[in-house]
Design brief:
about 0% strand; about 90% helix
């Protein structure tokens, strides 16, 4: 991190040299330029932070919407499971009645035969 900072400072000084300005001999002038470069870097970081925060906000909204859809689907599935359970109960009750009727029919057929 420190190396990157010094490289960016050096790049800033090189930029000033490319603009036709000489590297300053005055330490105060050098300090001002370093602080200006730091300020510019911070502005860039802030811009990136704002963009990241916007992306996070969109992601949170999407996640909330997905959670709501998922909750709705879970409720629908639970209702479907309840209906299947009720149908299976009814079939089991009907099966007992059907078995009873079959026994009676066989008993009647034995009497007739």
């Amino acid at each position: 991190m420190i190396v990157a900072f010094f490289l960016s400072v050096r790049a800033g000084l090189d930029r000033h040299a490319e603009d036709g300005q000489e590297a300053p001999d005055d330490p105060a002038s050098l300090t001002v330029r370093i602080l200006e470069d730091i300020r510019d870097e911070i502005r860039g970081v802030r811009t990136e932070q704002v963009a990241t925060n916007e992306r996070l906000e969109r992601l949170e909204q999407r996640q909330s919407a997905d959670a709501m859809r998922l909750a709705t689907e879970i409720v629908t599935v639970a209702k479907g499971i309840d209906q299947v359970r009720d149908l299976l109960r009814d079939r089991r009750a009907e099966r007992a009645t059907l078995t009873d009727h079959e026994k009676r029919i066989r008993a009647i057929e034995r009497k007739i035969a």
